[in-house]
Amino acid sequence: MKLEDYKDISARCSQCNFCQAACPVFRSKGSENWLARNRLNLIREVLIEKTMEPTPRFTEILETCLLCTGCTQSCSSMVPVDEIIIAARSRMAEYAGGVSSLKKKLFSGVIKNSSAMNLMVKAGAVAQKFGMAPGNLPQMSSKPFFSRRSGTLKPDGTAEARVAYYAGCGTNFFYPETGEAATDILLKMNTEVIIPEGLTCCGIPLLSEGDIEGAAEVFRKNIEILASIECDKILMECTSCIMMFMKKGPKLFAADDPVMEKVKAVNAKIENALTYIYQKKNSGINKKAQGSFTCHVPCHLNKSGKGPGTAEILQALTGAEYRELDEPESCCGAGGAYYMKDKELSETIREIKLKDIRKREASVLVTECPMCRYYISRGIPEMEVMHPLEFIKVSMI
Ligand code: SF4
Ligand code: SF4
Q1: pTM of the prediction?
Q2: Residues 354-388: pLDDT tens digits?
């Protein structure tokens, strides 16, 4: 994912502007400055061709992007704009005014070390309880998922399949109930569930900061562990983790890096837990309609994937009434942790989503991304917001 690798690819941009409609920043700010093609043109001139000096305005344009992948997913020339922006952010760390190296070291040091992260989150949970921590993070769980479930979980009946379960940071530290729902449903379906030890963050937060090396380090560690597990499938439930494993992570290594064999073997087994459960839906299902729901589709969900979407799966598994948003796929403004950097922009983007949600008057909003879940629920505290697995758990257990 080095900037030089994207020299020819970035030149494929035909300036067609098809990506305009997909960009939440353009939609909120309404100016050409924020469009993917402008970002690409600037990155080429400043960092690749070096015909212009990097200025504070250039940094601002580079940083004011939620890495939602809307432009990449809608690009007529298949330019991976978000990856080029990440590579440019990484390069900017070398210039004054780029990502602070101290901040980068502290951030990546904690993320790369799962024990340090556990400790920090536990301390954060206590601090939040006593009002001593910033209020712009989800409530950290005093008992993370890995402290609740570990090792190999055996179903009551004879195991019909054996899966490994990767719980991302959002599930582990903020919403352990999502991991409990995933494992409870799988056990009910007579599936043996392995929760591998030593797994850490998927690396997406590091990539967003332009820390490509840090992301490669945690990704390699996770791949080594997952490749060593004997299982039929590797299940995940966070759309950003799935995107990291399937799309971004493999691009962090040279094609001849020995880890690539393991990456391919692991990725061949990865599946969205929701889709896996849906495909096996005949076992253990007991539909109990539970009112109405609406669905926010996270930006990082692979929308080109074949098969039914989240709402369709939930309808089939629960019998609940689905109230579709006008724009289920529009960004909620969270952008991972972007909402902490630019509160005003994120709130402007979120307001469009909230208006859409309020109109539906559904009992529950489901979404597969923990940060979307948190950010939307903060804007609409009166509504119940949960992961789809928690929604279907009621019907299947
Ligand atoms: S990644 Fe999202 S916010 Fe960034 S330029 Fe592309 S569409 Fe806009
Ligand atoms: S859709 Fe792709 S090719 Fe067209 S302007 Fe956007 S980035 Fe360039």
Answers
A1: 0.90
A2: 999 999 999 999 999 999 999 999 999 999 999 99
Is 85 close to ligand 2, i.e. is its CB under 6 Å away? Answer: no
Query: Which atom of ligand 1 has the smallest separation from the CA of 23?
Result: 7
C-alpha of residue 38 to centroid of ligand 2, in Å: 10
Ligand nearest to C-alpha 39: 1
What is the distance between the alpha carbons of residues 132 and 213, in angstroms, rounded to a whole number? 33
How many Cβ atoms are within 10 Å of 63's Cβ, its own excluded?
16
User: Where does 286-396 sit in CATH, by number?
Assistant: 3.40.50
Ligand 2 center to 18 CA (angstroms): 6
Q: Which of 71, 94, 74 is nearest to 84 (CA)?
A: 71
Dist CA 107 CA 304 (whole Å): 33
Residue 102: predicted pLDDT: 47
Element (H, E) at 321: strand 321-322
Residue nearest to atom 4 of ligand 2 (CA): 16
Between 104 and 150, the higher pLDDT residue: 150
Average pLDDT over residues 238-259: 96
Best of 62, 69, 77, 79 for a ligand 1 pocket test (most atoms within 8 Å of beta carbon): 69
- How far is residue 67's CA from residue 71's CA, in Å, rounded to a whole number? 9
pLDDT (mean) for 316-322: 89
**Interval between CA 7 and ligand 2 midpoint (Å):** 15
- Please state, rounded to an integer, the average pLDDT across all residues of the chain: 89
| Distances from the Cα of 338 to the Cα of 144, 147, 220, angstroms | 24, 28, 25
Domain borders along the chain are 3-92, 109-276, 286-396
Percent of the chain having pLDDT more than 70?
Answer: 86
Q: How far is 127 from 131, CA to CA, in rounded Å?
A: 6
- Tell me if 20 CB under 6 Å of ligand 2: no
